[in-house]
Amino acid sequence: MRTLILLLFSAATLAGAGLRAGAGRADVTPDGPVWMSGYAARTHPSDGAATRLWAKALAIESGPGHRIVIVGVDVVGIPGDIAPEVARRTGLKRAELLINASHTHTGPIVWGNLPNIAVVPPAEQEKLIAWRPKFVDGIVAAVTAALHDLAPATLSYGEGSADFAINRRQPTPQGIKGGVNPDGPVDHSVPVIKVLGPDGKLRAVLFAYACHNTTLTAEIYQLSGDYAGFAAAELERRHPGATAVFLELCGADQNPNPRGTVELGKKHGETLAAEVDRVLAAPGKPLAGPVRTTLRLIPLQFAPRTRADLEAELHDPLPAKTRRAAMMLKALDAGRTIDTVQYPVEAIRFGRSLTLVALGGEVVVDYDLRIKREHPGEPIVVAGYSNDVMSYIPSRRVLREGGYEANDSMIYYGQPGPYTDDVEERIVSAVNRALKEVGR
User: What is the per-residue pLDDT across 218-244, written as a single tens digit (0 to 9) for each?
Assistant: First the structure.
């Protein structure tokens, strides 16, 4: 019996072998005060930093032509032209790169993302425009370092749970409002990928959660990675020399609860780090190659808006709406279309042991729950906020119910209006095709 147990253990260990992994990082904190993203109510630039802001990369390779580099960055979101630039500059195929925004609302505006979030004074615009190339350089540096760090490693997967995320879409007699809905859908799982060196020492950890990274609210002007940044810092304190990379999942309609102070951000970060550490202490499910990746862009359709609609909106009492209408009319006058957006769907599979789906935009939790339900068996992790954050991505249910995620958020993203009611089916169909392409 003892021999059988040893053989099974050896087989499990070998299943996670044959992979190489490397980690890299770059500090992308702006020098000096900058205008922050995430909250339209802010009225002045940042005032110091509670944590540094990072671009962290984890490279995983199973052989020539079979690799992925996963990057986590401490910003609200990135526009869609950054990932192709980083791939080109680092020699990666586009499908070999995944860039995920932690969605901290205490980070700087990445110029081009959330273009209608605020009226930024010209001098502050200049600072943001000057910082963006430095930000991209930081991502390139982190990816390059991770690729140079590639070395034999053993990878395993485990999953924990943290319960501070709560659905924020609260039904009221006046419709859906932002609040606390303990009966709404959630996913409290905490996926964890553990990366060990040949000596058994932790080299890196990729951890994830489906919750808005918004413990810190609009009145807080210190730059930080919010709960995700605090969690990563705590994990790296507990494991000197290791790199902790955070992946934001489908948390568009989930908020930390409670929220509102730096202390609560640290508390949620410590809660998450403790759960990740608990998972790290367990053996985990070995991950194996080959690493297969695919990425496709699909068109998503917005509900029709006529020129007359937009011209009428120029007189709306909400300033953000009049700005949005002016943006849309300017695009039409330049001959650009405003009725579709190109949407990225990426899939990564590690042998037959784990699949990662990465979706663009602020994705509500319904997608996570549906994709897991329709693809049982092998673990599957569904991330949002990946490769391009162009808008909220509502499900059919959320579109039907209305509220911020379906409608009002589009104003601040500078999009013409809500999506058509087939948005969920378009995305899920693309996910299903992507999963077939990686052999699932």
Answer: 999 999 999 999 999 999 999 999 999
For residue 225, is it within any domain?
yes
Per-residue pLDDT, 416: 97
- The three-state (H, E, C) secondary structure of the chain, written as one string: CHHHHHHHHHHHHHHCCCEEEEEEEEECCCCCCCCECCCCCCCCCCCCECCCCEEEEEEEEEECCEEEEEEEECCCCCCCCHHHHHHHHHCCCHHHEEEEECCCCCCECCCCCCCCCCCCCHHHHHHHHHHHHHHHHHHHHHHHHHHHCCEEEEEEEEEEECCCEEECEEEECCEEEECCCCCCCCCCEEEEEEEECCCCCEEEEEEEECCCCCCCCCCCCCECCHHHHHHHHHHHHHCCCCEEEEEEECCCCEEECCCCCHHHHHHHHHHHHHHHHHHHHCCCEECCCCEEEEEEEEEEEECCCCHHHHHHHCCCCCHHHHHHHHHHHHHHHCCCCCCEEEEEEEEEEECCCEEEEEECCEECHHHHHHHHHHCCCCCEEEECCECCCCCEECCHHHHHHCCHHHHHHHHHCCCCCCECCCHHHHHHHHHHHHHHHCCC
Q: Model confidence at 306, in pLDDT bands (50, 70, 90)? A: very high
Structural domain range at position 235:
13-291+346-390
In a domain, 181, yes or no: yes
Same domain for 374 and 320:
no
Question: Are residues 247 and 151 part of one domain?
Answer: yes
Residue 218 shares a structural domain with residue 259: yes
408 lies in some domain: no
